[in-house]
Amino acid sequence: MVHKLKITNERFKSLITTAKKSVIRFNDRDYQRQDILIFTFIDGLSRGGEWIITHIHSGLGLKEGYVVLSLERINEEQ
User: Fold this and answer.
1) Is this prediction's pTM over 0.90?
2) What is the pLDDT of residues 22-32, one digit of tens each?
3) H-type alpha helices, 3-64
4) Which residues are CB-neighbours of 52 under 8 A, at least 6 positions away?
5) What are the C-alpha distances in Å from 34 to residues 11, 17, 54?
6) Which CATH class is domain 2-75?
7) Residue 29 in contact with residue 18, Cβ under 8 Å?
8) Greatest CA span in the chain, whole angstroms?
9) Using DSSP, how many helices (H) and how many strands (E) does the chain show?
10) Where are the domains of the chain?
């Protein structure tokens, strides 16, 4: 499944550097491993490439309904 999500520029910058390889999201979309995420910056003008979910963590240490999505970049926006 493909999910189109909004992200702030600063959070996206931390994803494309080695500083961060995961995001915390409310699980209102029933995220699954191998789902594709396409990030759009909040300004709505730019896209941030495609990412695949490699692991999902829920439960221990997270507020109910939230998950940590481990991501790997699979395609850069041209």
Assistant:
1) no
2) 889 999 999 99
3) 9-16
4) 34, 35, 36, 37, 71, 72, 74
5) 21, 21, 6
6) mainly beta
7) no
8) 38
9) 1, 5
10) 2-75
